[in-house]
Design goal:
Blueprint (H helix, E strand, L loop, with lengths): L2 H6 L2 E8 L5 E7 L8 E7 L11 E6 L4 E5 L15 E11 L8 E7 L27 E5 L10 H10 L4 E4 L18 E10 L2 E6 L19 H10 L3 E6 L1
Parallel strand pairs: 8-9, 9-10
Antiparallel strand pairs: 1-6, 2-5, 2-7, 3-4, 3-6, 10-11, 11-12
């Protein structure tokens, strides 16, 4: 890829085929960082459209992972486990930075068929009633990351830290995914809000109050793209709250 490729298409897609009966998909990439001149992000889409808002996204890890594995029951943080449909998948590459000399990206993919196909993914149960009632001040963190993007703690570890600090709630807002929902967390008295930091090339925003299997707000909107309105509508259509974080 060259700087001209980046200007023409910030996101590039490398196709690969998943045969019927596949129960494990593993992929990875490698490239020369050139002392920081090159930074390439990573994600993947199952068979389906590549356009904005596609339900085919199976995860995004930005620059945090070099290899990713997805099975019917487990996945690398930032990615969704579950059935692996046969057909044309795409490794998604985000051209965050490309040096003047360009960059070669080597993508490797492995598929494996062993055992029975996985059932549809079910998320761990969440409390349906308020944890507290009545008029009072509530304290919490509205912008927190976990190992599902560039954080260092699991959701359970983050929730435990919040409880120790005396917080009432936390909002997990990992970059461009909500796969933290797959973690089962003990009922520790801390309200956990499903969110996302929508990390676009032109700036970052939070969405609070989304959630569900593979639900996320697509982030692939460049600065000046009028489809930013579609992104905002995707948040409000879910009954969620959006906030601009910073330019």
């Amino acid at each position: 890829y060259t700087p001209q490729d980046r200007a023409a298409g910030r996101y590039q897609y490398v196709p690969f085929d998943v045969p019927p009966g596949t129960t494990r998909v593993a992929f990875g990439y490698a490239y020369d960082r050139a002392d920081g001149a090159n930074v390439i992000d990573l994600g993947v889409l199952e068979p389906g459209p590549l356009d904005l808002g596609s339900p085919a996204f199976r995860g995004w890890s930005g620059g945090e992972r070099r290899t990713v594995t997805i099975t019917g029951t487990e996945a690398t943080p930032g990615y969704w486990p579950g059935p692996l449909p046969a057909g044309r998948w795409h490794v998604a590459l985000g051209l965050y930075k490309v040096g003047e000399a360009g960059v070669d990206v080597e993508v490797t993919v492995e598929t494996e068929a062993s055992g029975a196909a996985a059932p549809p993914l079910a998320l761990p149960a969440r409390p349906r009633e308020p944890l507290r009632r009545g008029a009072r001040w509530y304290s919490g963190g509205l912008h927190l990351h976990t190992v599902h993007s560039d954080g260092t703690l699991t959701v359970a570890e983050l929730s435990a830290r919040a409880r120790e600090a005396g917080l009432d709630f936390i909002a997990v807002t990992d970059h461009n995914n909500t796969s933290h929902q797959t973690e089962a967390v003990p009922d520790d008295g801390v309200l956990r809000i499903v969110g996302e930091e929508i990390t676009t090339p032109g700036g970052h925003a939070n969405a609070w109050g989304i959630g569900g299997v593979r639900d996320f707000i697509d982030f692939r909107v460049a600065a000046g793209d009028p489809r930013i309105g579609d992104l905002v509508r995707a948040v409000t259509a879910r009954g969620a709250l959006g906030s601009i974080n910073h330019p």
